[in-house]
Amino acid sequence: MREHFDNQLNKLRDDILTMGSVVEEELRLALEAAKNLDFSLAHKVQAIDKTVNEKRFTIEEECTTIICTQQPTARDLRAVIAVMNMIVDLERMGDQAKGVAKAVLHMENNPSQKQPPELKEMGSIVSSMLRQTMTAYANRDIELAEQISERDDEVDELYHQLFARIMVRMAQSESADKCETNYEFLRMARELERFGDLVTNVAERIVYITTGLMQETNIDFKQKVPA
Length: 227
What we know:
Blueprint: H1 2-36, H2 39-70, H3 74-106, H4 117-139, H5 142-146, H6 148-172, H7 176-211
Helix pairs in contact: 1-2, 1-3, 1-4, 2-3, 3-7, 4-6, 4-7, 6-7
């Protein structure tokens, strides 16, 4: 019975990692679409988001089945409950990536402008954060998970810098079209800033699985609790 249960938990872990990789690909395509104003790629992002949503519901059903049929112990139950929270955040990350793609599509009829450098850097950081978080989950690496909040602080700072830059651009612009384009850049940045927050949420759940503590990742997690 325990071997069967362990196999179920391993499959659950693998499914989370697969979902994370799909979200990462969705984000990668959204960022590429933004960089090159590739509208066909932006439409592809929207299609991938449907796959993310489907995976969320499939994994949620797996979790429900495990809880109902296996009566997991405290440590195992934490792992399952954490997964149920993680898939919600991963699905929302997909929504943020889709939001970037939508902003790209809104720029189709507007004059192109140079993408703010902060936007590219934000995209690079949140992509790295997601990969790091999935690695932390696969290896139950608490220290790696705890580092995520520091990266999120970088994203927040870049967002504030970009916001200030866009406000200056819009104040100086005499063209309504250019104002709209700048607004879409700001919208993309907001989606990426929120993406970083969601990755941080997942990192917190990874710490919870191992320690039983549910706190922000900038708190010292060295104190452990018994399973």
